[in-house]
Amino acid sequence: MINEKRLKQEAKLLKKNNDSLNQAQALDIVARKYGYSSWPDVSKELKKQAVEGIPLPSISTNFVEYNEVEMSDKDYEVYDQERASDLQLEQKLLLRSNTVALTKLGVEFSLFEPTQTGLNKSILDATQSVRDHFELEEFHYYFQQEQGVIRKEVSYLVNPNEIKEIVGSFYRPKTKQGDPRMWYRQLPKFATAGDQIAIVIYQGSPHLINLSRIDLEVELQNPYSQIYKLITNYINKEFSYSAELLNKIKELAIKPFKAQRSGDTAIGYTLETLLGIDANSSKDPDYHGIEIKSGRGGKNRTTLFAQVSDWNLSPCGCKEVDFTKGSSAKILDRYGYEREDDFKLYCTVSTQRQNSQGLHFIFNKQKDQLEEWYRNEELVAVWPAKLLKKRLIEKHSETFWVQAKSFKESGEEFFQLERIVHTKAPVLSQLIPLICSGVITMDHLIKRSGKTGRVTEKGPLFKIDKRNLELLFPEPIEINLKNEIHNV
């Protein structure tokens, strides 16, 4: 496995010892040392590693488990052969490429995977991500639908050469659970078991695209493709004030500037001060609706937003007047550790594994909420999905992710602004899937001071690797502050 940080450090040392080399040349030399033709080949391999480490959600066959369809012995033989492991790497790479293409363009979509049993029985589970998407687009609200009532709507199967009109059915069966179901006529001619199907709601109707059978980057270059026509007609978004802010930041990037405070917040505080933005703890975006996220260049993870759990739903919540601090203190007391003079809980929480404190995430599909658990035994905190989505869109309707190089002169820190990644409205339907796959994680930063006994919390901070911004935000634009502008 490639260690990107180590290779870049090696290239940096090589450049330092050879003044005739620039950074790109040094990276290419290091790449060839490890058997790659150039650094871009290393970057491709790093992307493969990242994709390989993100598992796909398991298949959903609740309709079988809840006895909603009649099953013969032969049917159960088919059911036993359904996908139980992750997809092959090449399939995942194609899916990643296609979902990134949709996200870059700001297309709201959800994914479902038909099973062979579902195709044979003409039934699909409407998973939580699909239901969220339908509600987001105001297409269908399963929670308002009576059991046994079937809603039928015109839907479309979208291929490169044709858009075929079909009928989609959306219902809750008359069973004890009454879980949401759906079906699209002629789906077995459009997809096989294991295919990844995107649903795009356009002009009030579901349009299905089989992401396992096409390369969207190719289709989006072909004006005769029906997929190209659909996506082109879908997108049309404009935002203001960004040119004004960009010009101000470009002026600041002409020369380095001195940090006006120390610590992790130094770059953010200093940049906003120089831009004339008052420091405050407001949850609102910083500049006419545009959020500014600043960071030193060496860090990969960046904060999307801070959001406390819903204390009314969280076992570690308490009903005291100052309930936020009280709840944080309660979590700290149960799961924290001593570090020097302080008592801390500094850790990252993910859906993929328990951390060293025994904490991890589980997404509760039935209740549509993100839950933090201790060793699968004790529920710690709860974030309703709607709360997280509301927070994301509040914070990032438009964002400048500013990267700065940090250096010291005479013991004082200076910053040189290097680049901006400009993103627009996030694709909300992808937030929960990205949390479930471990792409988005959360950091606890709770501390009780050994001197004052006071408990403080800087989070919880929901974070994403900067390299994965394209999975959440449509068409990120990278702006080199030496006036080079290109699409990420």
TrEMBL record:
<feature type="domain" description="MvaI/BcnI restriction endonuclease">
    <location>
        <begin position="246"/>
        <end position="473"/>
    </location>
</feature>
<dbReference type="Pfam" id="PF15515">
    <property type="entry name" value="MvaI_BcnI"/>
</dbReference>
<dbReference type="InterPro" id="IPR029127">
    <property type="entry name" value="MvaI_BcnI"/>
</dbReference>
<protein>
    <recommendedName>
        <fullName>MvaI/BcnI restriction endonuclease domain-containing protein</fullName>
    </recommendedName>
</protein>
<dbReference type="InterPro" id="IPR043004">
    <property type="entry name" value="MvaI_BcnI_cat"/>
</dbReference>
<dbReference type="InterPro" id="IPR043005">
    <property type="entry name" value="MvaI_BcnI_rec"/>
</dbReference>
